[in-house]
Amino acid sequence: MIRTLIFTSALILLATGASAQPADNVAAANKAALREPAANGFVHAVQVYPFADGVLYRLYTMPGRISDIALQPGETLTSVAAGDTVRWTVGDTTSGSGDAKRTHILVKPFSVGLSTNLIISTDRRVYRIQLASRATSAMPAISWTYPADELLAWQRQREASEAAKPVSASVAIEQLNFNYRISGDRPPWLPLRAFDDGRKTWIEFPPSISVGEAPPLFVLGDKGEAQLVNYRVSGRYYVVDRLFGSAELRLGGKKQKIVRITRRERGI
Predict the structure, then answer these.
(1) More confident residue, 134 or 8
(2) CA dist., res. 261 & res. 190, Å (int)
(3) Is 239 helix (H, G, I), strand (E, B) or coil?
(4) What is the pTM of this model?
(5) pLDDT in tens, 195-213
(6) Distance CA 117, CA 28 (A)
(7) Is the dihedral of CA 144, 148, 153, 157 positive or negative?
(8) Is-contact 226 249, C-beta < 8 A?
(9) Which phi-psi region, left, alpha or beta, contains residue 137 (left: φ > 0; alpha: ψ -120 to 50)?
(10) What is the mean pLDDT of residues 86-97?
(11) Which of 53, 90, 94 is nearest to 77 (CA)?
(12) Contact 61, 109 (CB under 8 A)
């Protein structure tokens, strides 16, 4: 009988522990994801959070005061859903115009001691707000910075800056020789032209070269043998730190595409 009771009690404890564990996991995850206002996060009266997907952002409110949730300029509101729509007033408005137009979600509690959540969906992201009402010290407004957007903008600016750089520096324009013949197959990456300045050779490709696989360059020896040559890629150009009489661009397996580039003497 005692063994039966012990066994039954053990089963009950296991069952209770198993049912409580998911709830504990949820509570722990929510606590870890919650971002509270920080002293160094305020810009005047606005708490500015760095945005990250899945984070819960705290907004403290109070009766008789409206708190503003300011979205990113240019962001389009899709929907707003509140967990408690009876004891909270939720509305929206906009400020600015054109690219600077900004959506504001306005919230106000009816009494002290309330808590609920707010989910804001836009054309760019989803915001998850944890609302709480207190007797004093309401937060007038919250907004966000967007590190991922800033990183993408920086990367695009860097790429544009790299693309705007000259292919080579200290090139004597009057020394350029464009007397090259391009023959062979006509793949999408067929070079537009080749030229040199007496020391280096440039091969210019169409913009489509950045989409597919780029062909390797081989210099042809005196007996027609193909030899790999060192070159660097600068935007749409191959830059070879030497001159050559003939070279070939080759790409593919059984149906290999071959384009020959031949340097001709000036005047020919």
Answers:
(1) 134
(2) 11
(3) strand
(4) 0.55
(5) 988 889 999 998 878 777 8
(6) 17
(7) positive
(8) no
(9) left
(10) 95
(11) 94
(12) yes
